[in-house]
Write a structure and sequence with these properties.
homodimer; Jelly Rolls
Amino acid sequence: MKVIPYNDISPTYFDNDLAKGVAGRVLVGKNDGANNFCMRIFEIAPGGHTPKHTHPWEHEMFIHAGNGEIYCDGGWTEILPGHVAFIPANIEHQIKNTGNTLLKVVCLVPPQAPEM
Amino acid sequence: MKVIPYNDISPTYFDNDLAKGVAGRVLVGKNDGANNFCMRIFEIAPGGHTPKHTHPWEHEMFIHAGNGEIYCDGGWTEILPGHVAFIPANIEHQIKNTGNTLLKVVCLVPPQAPEM
């Protein structure tokens, strides 16, 4: 069993040409014995964004806090706390923070994806 | 792609000898083309609880809102918003709401588990 505040996990920061103001954490993964899917959380700072990218695995997301937009299927859709997103494999996508507080997105991937 | 507020999904209610005050929703599952893992959310009313049970699949959980406790490995642990829980397969577990507002738990299961 593992029960912890997500903030107890050290983040990996992404701040480059493709991603801006992003802190990612693996919440539950193979190191915990979770071999079927991996839970991460991404904190995106105001003005920040994930890379616009495509990969051969899906995302299941839950918006925990903040305000933003998600790009998928060629357009942007607003995301708010309590929103759910499913991004199928091989679909270009991106998330940006359009608010003034951290955008916090729980994001799960299957085991063939890199955990972070 | 699917991006929706979780409240747009109709809940299934559980109120019986084993579970009390629980509303469950499948957020992302096989009907969406998500075949590798299934995201659900459970709202547990103040005083309510899930069944104390065991099954041969794991849970990965993220606490979105509320206050409660989770039973696992023979003891109770406090859960708060932003807490993460991993319950391995075949471990007895239960969640109860110890607060005055809805306890909202995002809970994922692998594809061999019932989605709800």
